[in-house]
Amino acid sequence: MKPWMLLGAVCAVLAGACGCGDSSADSDEAVVFGQDRNGQTVALAVGASLAVELAGNPTTGYEWTVAQIDSAHLRLAGSTYAAESSAVGSGGTYVFRFETLRAGRTVLGLVYRRSWETTAADQTFTLTVDIRDGDDSSGAAALENTRWKLAAWSAGSLNPAGFDVTAEFADGRIGGRSAVNSYGGDYSAAADGRFSVGALAMTEMAGEPAAMEAESLYHALLGQVDRWRIANGQLVLSGAGQDLLIFDPR
Question: Which residues are CB-neighbours of 10 under 8 A, at least 6 positions away?
Fold first, then answer.
């Protein structure tokens, strides 16, 4: 076995047992971005935490590293690697956690390469981060320019994953599809978790009975929402202390 393969295998096994890097890089309370957000722009408030999760396999000699970061706007809080299994040669997930420091727009870049090679990286990941001053609008800043698909709700026996229910946030407005029709209106999201939706406009198309029922349920639940949070990379909208709508990122 080549030395770098042996070193990678040892690292992978150790990583699976205890992780590599700063163990404080727990992404549970951070807004999480994966490979599907490569090249996109996201909006966050000053003081927010963001995590980048990328698949990799150090047993091949490749590893993800931070290649571009503006220390005036972002701080690397820590990084971990978790192997998928204890089997030698298995891959896993790299997690890099960052904190936003000051308002401004900055580009974060990571590369996947062997440390001793000088050729172009095998893979790259870039994320433009629009950081906004923290105030009551900082919650909206965290949601601005994000897109979500409904994954779960507190209602009935209908599975929301079987319908096209989405929420997109841009320019202070929420919009998307609600199983049959398109909808849109103003929203408010504060840094302390308060959330509200104004009067919504909606198209007036008819659909299958199940889809129409899902649409009615969605709007009924959305009207009850008074709190929001990001948990494990999901958008959770709640009301009266109950989680009502849970979205996955699109």
Answer: none
Q: Above 70 in pLDDT, residue 13?
A: no
Cα separation, 188 vs 174, whole angstroms: 9
Quote the tokens at residue 118. 């000088």
CB neighbour list of residue 85: distance below 8 Å, 6 or more residues apart? 16
What residues contact residue 157 under an 8 Å CB cut-off, 6+ apart? none
Tens digits of per-residue pLDDT, 103-144?
888 999 999 999 898 888 889 999 988 787 654 445 566 788
Domain 3-12+21-133 = CATH 3.30.70.1130: no
Place of tokens 């302390």: 192
Topology given in CATH for the domain delimited by 140-249: Lipocalin (2.40.128)
Structure tokens given for 12: 């992978």
Q: Tens digits of per-residue pLDDT, 162-215?
A: 899 999 998 889 999 999 999 999 998 887 788 999 999 999 999 999 999 999
Virtual torsion, Cα 235, 236, 239, 243, nearest 10 deg: 160
Q: How many CB atoms lie within 10 A of CB 15?
A: 19
* pTM summary value: 0.50
Name which of 6, 167, 13 is nearest 90 in CA terms.
13
> Where do the domains of the chain lie?
3-12+21-133, 140-249
Q: Are 158 and 210 in contact (CB under 8 A)?
A: yes
